[in-house]
Amino acid sequence: MLRQFVLASALVSSISVSAQENTEITPTTVDHTTSSIAPPNPQPYVRSEMDWVSEHQVPSELRDERCENCKGRYIDPLAGADEGVSIDESDINATATSTELQGDTVLLTGGVQVTQGYRQLKGDSATINRATGSGTLEGNITIREPGLLLHGNKADYTSETGEASVEGSQYVLHEQHLHGSADALQRDAAGLIHIVNGSMSYCSPEDEQWMMRADEIELNIEEGVGTARGAKFDIAGVPVLYSPWLRFPLDDRRKTGFLWPDIGSDTRGGLDVAIPIYYNAAENYDLLYTPRYIQERGINHEAYARYLGPLIGQWNFAGAFLASDDRLEDDIPDLDDYDRWLTGVNHNGLFKRRWRTRVDYTKVSDVDYLKDLDSSSLESKRQTSLLQLGSVDYLGDKWLVGLDVQQFQTLADDIREDYKKLPQITASYRSDKTPFQFSPIAQLQYSNFDADVPSRVTGQRVYGELGVSYPMEWDYGFLRPTTKYRQLAYSLDESTSFTEDAPRAGVAVAAIDSGLFFERSTSFAGERLLQTLEPRLFYLYSEYEEQKDQPDFDTAELTFSYNQLFRQTRFSGRDRLDDANQASMGITTRFINEEDGQEQFSASLGQIVYFDDRKVRLKPSSAPLDDSKSEVAGELNFSPNERLSLRSNLQWEIDTGKVNAGNLNVNYQQDNGGVYNFGYSYRRPQTITATRDITEQATVSTYLPMGRQWSFFASMSYSIKAERSVEDMFGLEYDTCCWMVRLLHLRYYDTVPGKTIDFNNPDLEQEHSTQFQIVLKGMGGYGNRVGGLMEDMIRGFEDREY
């Protein structure tokens, strides 16, 4: 990496030190027709003086997307050299036409070549003073290390301080794809590299589309940061930008300084410009401050801080403040306060592998804050609530004990606010589930529910379950009988909605889960496959007890799917002890590649047969569920290779012959980076879920390379019922060897997840957003929101690192 720059410039120092330690320098005659030290295994291509190889000569195994864009690549003849042996422990071998010893001075002349381990050096002549540890090399100097090449006219060094300088130098950093030149290249006693009146570019040396020139470029290899003073950016040889001071990264570590800005525009605020300022205070904590100008609103001050400690874990703090939002004042002139803010804390910690802590807290000034001011993704704009959670868990050998406090901030006026859990304490027994041994089941949970709405019932709930299972496992199948007792008790505050203030319920549950495994070898399209057939039978019995006078604090009916066939409850939460007398039958087949063990195909199909009506409902007034059998649920997965994947599920009602729900998702990725997605989803009201409108939607998205440099990308969600797009994004990318630009336009409706858009609403308006991104490869760029939006909306797309 770039640290090798330091080692290379100190190469001559190691020669002096070794000479003082009586290292032998043997003069020999060399062939002067060789222009550089040849690699151990010469390759069938021709490198330029700066190790550049034209595309048509690059071996096929080294050709990649960057090589094609740049019409060539740097090839390091020392790539793969053994760097495990310390240079200080390696012998120095030097050859020259003639040598002369004058006291403490060693003179080497005529094709001087020096090697020490993986270092190589060449020059016309060298003068080494063994007493002072200094020396000079002159004429056609070449210094090599893995990942580094230096050329120069003259080099001076001092081994005692490590200082060195190379005049008239050119350099190449192979891994970083950077090259440049300098009047002088210096290494000071602190190890910093100074490029005086120099240049730097990521571009091909045959087509330098942009170049940074500076009075001085300082490279801090240890910290991985570069600083330029008097920097000028040339595009196609024309100066377009000047900066008196510029800091940029040399690797993926974050560095203190200005980051490239984000520039965009949308219908919620107009022109939007953000300029991040990063402060790397220490290895374990940093701060990002971003003043953000929004044309129609004002300046939003955004800050994000991180801290990582060995005892208190990882902490992330976020905050934002916009004083007197001008757009909000125009839209709603009768508000008392137009200041807008956000605060957030996120924490994860693990102390002595026993105590686990978590904080996830976000709060905003108003329900429209994220819609108006969060431009990172559509998903964040459409959140209906913000989680505010704190938890502490004790991970014992046999018990898991957790304390949670939780509440939500609702972001939609027409959605009922969730209850607060202040607190919830849970103790669960951690069974080993060892086959052919009794496995205890024990859980006790206390929850205190509160609400800001005075008319809502509040109170405490205690839930407990106690039982035992006896898992039996064989190579050909399994049998897992379980029996337990579930108990529920409340202590409710006064409420007119309930006749009892301490309702109770308790039911016994028994379940038997069983399955068999059959397998055979087969083949398809020349591949050896292992096919399995896995029938599964699950019986569940749960007593019925009337629960009409119990509240609903945190419970919902689960959406039916194939996995629901083998669950012991049809509810989430603890407010309902559902009754059941049913058997589930399912079958799965898989095709597994015998060479690499990858599952290439799987299909599952199953159904529940009900022997009794299900009387316990989320709403006590709802009629019992009297179907004798469930819908048929199926799943299908197909991944024949790393490029193609297909996922689908289906819920089909046999009696009516109708599909109640289903979806299909297909993803295909090309070797050239192309991504193609198709999705289809359909849902009609189901029997055990809340009534909702029929929804039918198709989604398509793509990242489509069109030749070497142009790419088109797009995403669209299309409502088949409404016959229109509800969300679409499209844009263009132009990608060259050393710079890239993207233009993205986004259109969407301001909707709430789970609710159907009313296209007949005359006030319905479509939102628009335009984002722009440019990247100077090797130096970063501005407009990072574009890459984030593309990753969110094009499944399988990953923004490239340059």
What does this protein structure show overall?
The protein is mostly beta strands. It is built from seven helices and 47 strands. The strands form four sheets. It has a 26-stranded antiparallel β-barrel. Strands 3, 4, 5, 6, 7, 8, 9, 10, 11, 12, 13 and 14 form a twelve-stranded antiparallel sheet that branches. Strands 1-2 form a two-stranded antiparallel sheet. A hairpin with a 4-residue loop joins strand 8 (148-158) and strand 9. It is elongated. The model is unreliable at 1-42 (pLDDT under 50).
Features:
802 residues; 47 strands; elongated
In brief:
This protein is mainly beta. It is built from 7 helices and 47 strands.
SSE topology sketch:
Blueprint: H1 3-9, H2 11-20, E1 52-54, H3 65-70, E2 72-74, E3 92-95, E4 98-102, E5 105-116, E6 119-129, E7 134-145, E8 148-158, E9 163-173, E10 178-187, E11 193-200, E12 210-220, E13 225-235, E14 238-249, E15 257-258, E16 262-266, E17 270-274, E18 277-282, E19 285-294, E20 298-309, E21 313-322, H4 326-331, E22 340-351, E23 355-364, H5 369-373, H6 378-381, E24 385-395, E25 399-410, E26 420-429, E27 439-450, E28 459-469, E29 472-474, E30 477-492, E31 504-516, E32 518-524, E33 527-542, E34 556-557, E35 571-572, E36 580-593, E37 599-610, E38 632-638, E39 644-653, E40 658-669, E41 675-683, E42 695-706, E43 710-719, E44 724-735, E45 739-749, E46 766-776, E47 780-782, H7 784-793
Antiparallel strand pairs: 1-2, 3-5, 4-5, 5-6, 6-7, 7-8, 8-9, 9-10, 10-11, 11-12, 12-13, 13-14, 15-18, 16-17, 16-46, 17-19, 18-19, 19-20, 20-21, 21-22, 22-23, 23-24, 24-25, 25-26, 26-27, 27-28, 28-30, 29-30, 30-31, 31-33, 32-33, 33-36, 34-35, 36-37, 37-38, 38-39, 39-40, 40-41, 41-42, 42-43, ...
